[in-house]
Write a structure and sequence with these properties.
alpha+beta, 3-stranded mixed sheet, 3-stranded antiparallel sheet, globular, 157 residues, 6 helices, DNA-binding, 6 strands, homodimer
DNA sequence: TAAATAAATGAAAATGGTTTTCATTAACAG
DNA sequence: CTGTTAATGAAAACCATTTTCATTTATTTA
């Protein structure tokens, strides 16, 4: 049975129209993949997932689409130090909790956490203010990440 | 005129000996370059600088030496998002102030800052403790970085 | 001090994620 | 439906970094 909103176009259509971008099969497929996972997918991950449904979509298009989505602010591009970029939906129609990441340096697992975010934000705000003033540096962004060994890797192997 | 300590081997010799590593011309040259700059040099920067004095030292050796130095904890390897790793001496014989970085997303300039570090460290400590407990994650490292536009880039160009 | 040995090195090739090129296809305004 | 132009796919290019392998060199041993 169809949900109540299935007759309306996906929420991101407006964003595309507003920017003059075309809504293509590839772009819809890629956004669909990203909106159906909580993982941090690499370009290749996304390519493989998209490929199952649309085998004619190439890796190049995946990269180009991801760049576009990052530039539009629809997704985040992360570097967890494993030599490949990872992507994550920035927000859904309902919005999404701001979070930071715990990265396991052994298996590469990434854990999102929202705890302590308030304190972090507070500190960041103060630091940003101080640094902006002292160095006359206009801060637009920050990166906080913790590295270590996850539960699983501490136990077996 | 020679300084008082020029007759003693450089302070890192002990570290090498202790680990069973050999003290070679290339390693000394690379460490010398790194200890004479406050900049965040890329492997190629270092290769070029070393090349002036010792044209026979190859880029491969620079990469290998940098890996070794990182592993020994003598230098830090940073990723400021410009597609190449950057290296910085971790500490001198007198030690070095712990600092974080402000990265200009326009020109790539990196500013070290030590201000607010105490508060940051305090927050990090608390956060690490909380996260370790909640996720049973053994945190070994963290990354804090601010991005924005530097003074020069705000003005001209 | 000279020979032995194992680590370190240089040059060239390989790797691998990402970007560019260019001819073709498809979205969508009219 | 048709023309315009953005979007695309395939292949090649890119570029920082790593690997291979034969040679050199720092250090050990005799």
């Amino acid at each position: 049975m169809r949900g109540r909103f299935d007759f309306y176009p996906p929420w991101w259509h407006g964003r595309f129209k507003g920017c003059g971008y075309r809504i293509t099969v590839a772009r819809q497929a890629i956004l669909e993949i990203l909106s159906k996972t909580t993982e941090h997918l690499s370009a290749e991950d996304i390519f493989l997932a998209v490929h199952k449904k649309c085998p004619n979509i190439g890796l190049t298009t995946v990269y180009r689409t991801l760049d576009l989505l990052v530039q539009m602010g629809l997704i985040y591009k992360h570097d967890f130090g494993d030599g490949r970029a990872r992507y994550e939906l920035a927000e859904g129609p309902k919005g999404k909790l701001h979070h930071h990441h715990l990265v396991c340096t052994k298996c590469g697992r990434v854990i999102d956490y929202t705890d302590f975010i308030d304190q972090e934000i507070e500190l960041l705000k103060q630091t940003e203010k101080g640094l902006s003033k002292k160095f006359n540096f206009k801060i637009t962004n920050h990166l906080i990440q913790f590295y270590g060994i996850c539960e699983q890797c501490q136990k077996g192997n």
